[in-house]
Design brief:
This protein is an alpha+beta fold and 388 residues long. 35% of the residues lie in helices and 16% in strands. The strands form two sheets. Strands 1, 2, 3, 4, 5, 6, 7, 8 and 9 form a nine-stranded mixed beta sheet that branches. The longest helix has 25 residues. The chain is elongated. InterPro entries: PGBD.
Length: 388
């Protein structure tokens, strides 16, 4: 299609019924995109079985337009945008569950608590009581959450802990008496939960909590740094959502827009491409590059539309020919124009305004006598034989 038509279609994209939108917005800030977003998330859940390790973290969809729940996160590259909470497979990076932060919702069915405890509790519902492990960072981690996941959902969890948590013992926070013992670890054990305080350098302490580990093992592969196994396990499973961000940015379909539902829609397309590639590789053991997979996927999605569109007689012959070649059809199947119709010569400059009824038999362009090359029947037969 032409660039102008692409922008026209882009400007007409809507994902709900505009006539009832204002009524629905009284109950839901996500009314313009709610239906398609929930359909996408449900399909993600149905199409894949997660591994034993999952990651929960936040993503930021870059957006600087007008949106009542736009967020500012200085640690993210985009800084401004729409925050999405995601649960991702820590090994294959499949996006399994998503939730858009919509700010304070009006009173009604979509009004939910946005505290980290409640967000994680909603995200893990599809994998509740499956014995998997959940990894998250210090924005989510709390003793109450780790205990709740273990007792109510039968899920273990690992995460870093902020120093301002009241449940932390003072001995795990102070580094003054341990500065000489750089790379040292101090462990605390309860029945089902382990706390570790690790000093990577002077005057710095890293706190981690785990319901998966129940010993004081040190990872020997870390050498003189003597990192606890809880630390190395956290480092190996914490980056699931960050990898998804990186994959989305590598082949990004996003376009600058002032409409936030479009930004969410482009993110859905990016994540759908990532998930489709993962499902394809798991089912076929293919080593195809993601770039080639996305290109093939796009072509297959437009093939049916193109096969119907190429039969429209009003389209230019060159466009019809390209669509037929794209579909694997030979050039001989391209219909020849009806003789007697006069049009501009497609080789001459536009200002000359030359009209002709002569058509090139190969590319089906209209050509005036100046750009026509004549053959006798014998030479034409020799040319056809050479082509064959």
């Amino acid at each position: 299609m032409s660039r102008q038509r692409f922008h026209f279609i882009q400007s007409c994209l809507r994902f709900d019924d505009k006539s009832t939108r204002e009524e629905r917005k009284l109950l839901d800030n996500l009314a313009p995109i709610r239906e398609i977003f929930e359909l996408f998330v449900e399909n993600c859940k149905k199409s894949y079985v997660l591994g034993e390790y999952v990651t929960i973290d936040e993503m930021l969809l870059a957006f600087r337009g007008r949106c009542k729940f736009r967020q500012y996160i200085p640690t993210k590259p985009a800084k401004y945008g729409i925050k999405v909470l995601a649960m991702v497979d820590a090994q294959n990076f499949y996006i399994f569950n998503l939730e858009i932060y919509a700010g304070k919702q009006p009173e009604g069915p979509f009004s939910v608590n946005n505290k980290p405890f409640d967000v994680v509790n909603r995200l893990v519902l599809p994998i509740s009581k499956t014995g998997r492990n959940v990894t998250f960072d210090n924005w989510f981690t709390s003793y109450e959450l780790v205990s709740h996941l273990l007792n109510e959902h039968k899920l273990t969890s690992v995460g870093t802990v902020r120093k301002n948590k009241r449940v932390l013992p003072n001995k795990f926070l102070k580094t003054s008496d341990r500065d000489a013992d750089v790379y040292s670890s101090k462990f605390g054990f309860q029945k089902d939960i382990t706390l570790v305080s690790y000093i990577p350098k002077k005057k710095k302490v890293v706190l981690l909590i785990s319901s998966l580990h129940h010993d004081a093992d040190i990872d020997e592969t870390t050498g003189e740094r003597k990192k606890p196994e809880i630390n190395t396990f956290y480092n190996s499973t914490k980056g699931g959502v960050d990898v998804v961000d990186e994959l989305s940015a590598t082949y990004d379909v996003n376009r600058n827009s002032k409409k936030w539902p479009l930004t969410v829609f482009y993110a859905i397309l990016n994540m759908a491409g990532i998930n489709a590639n993962i499902v394809f590789k798991c089912n076929t053991n293919s080593t195809q590059k993601r770039r080639n997979f996305i290109k093939t996927l796009g072509r297959m999605m437009v093939a049916e539309h193109m096969s119907a569109r190429k039969e429209i007689p009003q389209l230019s012959s060159q466009l019809c020919k390209r669509m037929r070649e794209f579909g694997g059809e030979s050039a001989q199947e391209t219909p020849v124009r009806v003789p007697g119709v006069r049009k501009r010569c497609q080789v001459c400059p536009y200002a000359r305004h030359r009209k002709t009824s002569n058509v090139c038999e190969d590319c089906h362009k209209y050509i005036c006598p100046e750009h026509t090359v004549s053959f006798c029947q014998e030479c034409a037969a020799i040319t056809d034989n050479n082509i064959e």
